[in-house]
Specification:
By secondary structure, this protein is an alpha/beta fold. It has helices spanning 29-38, 47-59, 86-93, 120-140, 148-165, 190-199, 238-245, 259-267, 278-284, 300-303, 319-325, 330-334, 350-356; strands at 20-22, 65-73, 94-107, 113-118, 167-171, 184-185. Strands 1, 2, 3, 4, 5 and 6 form a six-stranded mixed sheet that branches. A hairpin with a 5-residue loop joins β3 and β4. α4 (120-140) packs antiparallel against α5.
Length: 357
C-alpha cells in the first residue's frame, strides 16, 4: 500500500492554502456532473479544465464545509440552570457548535479520497470548551492528589495538539455535496463519523492507580533466636511434667543381675497376700510322690538360683538294643530304659489331672 502523503497545509498550526488536487487521466463522470452543476459557464472539455475549475472553487474563502454539529454545554455541571421543564434547561444550558473544515487534499488516482482540516474558528471554540467546561467538570468529578493540577494542564495541552492535527479523510464521492460557492456538507451519514472522532479527543481525567499496600507480616521466631529458647515445647500440666522428670530410661545395653543381687530384693517382699487357700491348692495340685512340699514363705534361692549341677541322667538305650528286644517278652514287662510297669500306680491318671486343672 503506498504511503498516504498530505500537503504541508494539512500539518498542525499551518495556515490555509490552496488544496492539493490530483486527477486521473480520465475524469470520473460524477465529478464532471458536479462541476457543471456548480459552475455552469465553465468549459469542462479536458482534465486541465476540470483541475482549474475544482481548484478555484475549493480555494475560495467561502469554501467551508460543515462536517458535523455538536450539542455542548454552556457552563460547567455545577453552574447549569435547574428547571422542571426539560426544554428550558436545554435552551439555557446547551449550545450548538458547528464543526467546519476546508479541503486540503483531493486524490482521484491512488487513494481516491478527500482530506479536510478544521478551520481556526472551530479549533478555537473546541479549545475554549475543553478548558472552561470539560476540564472543570473533570476536576470536580475526581478526588484531589498531589499532581492533579499538573495532570490537568497536560490533559489540556494534549487536546490542543490533537485538535490542531485532526484531519478527516473520506471517499472522493463526498464531492457530490459541493455547492456553488465551494461550501458543502457531508452526505450518507458521514457526519456521525466526524462527531465520534471529535468527541473521542475529550479524554477523562484519570486519577493515579491506588498504591499497593505493604502488608507487614510478623517475623517468624526461629529455634536459633535468643528471644524464646523453648518456644517449641508445648505447655503441659504440672503433674505430667513432674512424672516425666521422674522417668528412668532403660540402658542401651542389657544388665544381668546375679542370684545374690536378686536375693535381697525378693527377701524383703511379703508373699502372704499371694497365698491361696489350702482347698484350692489341693484341687489344683495332684498328689504325687514326686511333688515338692509347698511353702508359704519361699526362699529366694527357690526362684532366683543359679543352675545346680545334678546327678547325670541314666542314658537311654540305643534304638539298636530296642530292636533286639522287641521280640522278647521282657519288653512288655521290664519296660524301656529301666522303666517298670509296677510304678504306674504312683502317677495320677491323665483324666484326673485335666479335671484338677
Amino acid at each position: 500500500m503506498p504511503p498516504q502523503l498530505l500537503p504541508s497545509s494539512a500539518a498542525a498550526f499551518s495556515a490555509r492554502a490552496a488544496p492539493n488536487i490530483v486527477l486521473n487521466t480520465k475524469v470520473d463522470p460524477f465529478l464532471t456532473g458536479t462541476l457543471k452543476r456548480v459552475a455552469r459557464k465553465r468549459p469542462l472539455n479536458s482534465v486541465a479544465q476540470h483541475f482549474r475549475c475544482l481548484t478555484e472553487i475549493l480555494s475560495g474563502p467561502s469554501a467551508i464545509w460543515t462536517l458535523a454539529s455538536l450539542f455542548l454545554q454552556r457552563a460547567p455541571q455545577d453552574d447549569l440552570v435547574k428547571n422542571d421543564n426539560p426544554l428550558v434547561e436545554a435552551i439555557f444550558n446547551y449550545q450548538m457548535v458547528s464543526i467546519e473544515a476546508y479541503v486540503v487534499h483531493v486524490d482521484m488516482v491512488s487513494q481516491n479520497e478527500v482530506a479536510f482540516k478544521l478551520t481556526p474558528e472551530t479549533i478555537e471554540s473546541l479549545i475554549e470548551y475543553h478548558k472552561d467546561i470539560h476540564s472543570v467538570d473533570a476536576k470536580n468529578d475526581t478526588f484531589n492528589w498531589s499532581e492533579k493540577e499538573a495532570q490537568l494542564k497536560k490533559l489540556h495541552e494534549d487536546f490542543v495538539q490533537a485538535v490542531n492535527k485532526f484531519v478527516y479523510r473520506t471517499n472522493s464521492m463526498v464531492l457530490e455535496g459541493l455547492e456553488e460557492d465551494g461550501a458543502g456538507e457531508l452526505l450518507c451519514g458521514r457526519s456521525e463519523e466526524v462527531k465520534n472522532a471529535i468527541m473521542g479527543m475529550f479524554l477523562p481525567l484519570l486519577p493515579p492507580p491506588p498504591r499497593p499496600v505493604d502488608i507487614v507480616r510478623p517475623t517468624p521466631v526461629l529455634p536459633s533466636s535468643t528471644g524464646a529458647e523453648h518456644w517449641w515445647q508445648p505447655n503441659l500440666p504440672l503433674a505430667y511434667s513432674n512424672t516425666q522428670d521422674s522417668w528412668k530410661y532403660a540402658p542401651s545395653e542389657p544388665v544381668y543381675s546375679s542370684a545374690d543381687s536378686g536375693a535381697g530384693m525378693w527377701a524383703n517382699m511379703d508373699l502372704s497376700d499371694f497365698q491361696l487357700p489350702t482347698e484350692m491348692m489341693a484341687d489344683m495340685s495332684p498328689t504325687s510322690s514326686y511333688s515338692d512340699p509347698f511353702s508359704a514363705t519361699p526362699s529366694p534361692q527357690q526362684f532366683y538360683s543359679l543352675p545346680v549341677a545334678s546327678a547325670p541322667i541314666s542314658s537311654m538305650p540305643l534304638p539298636s538294643t530296642l530292636m533286639q528286644q522287641q521280640c522278647s517278652p521282657s519288653v512288655g514287662y521290664d519296660g524301656f530304659g529301666g522303666f517298670n510297669w509296677d510304678d504306674y500306680s504312683n502317677f495320677a491318671p491323665m483324666h484326673q489331672m485335666q479335671y484338677a486343672m
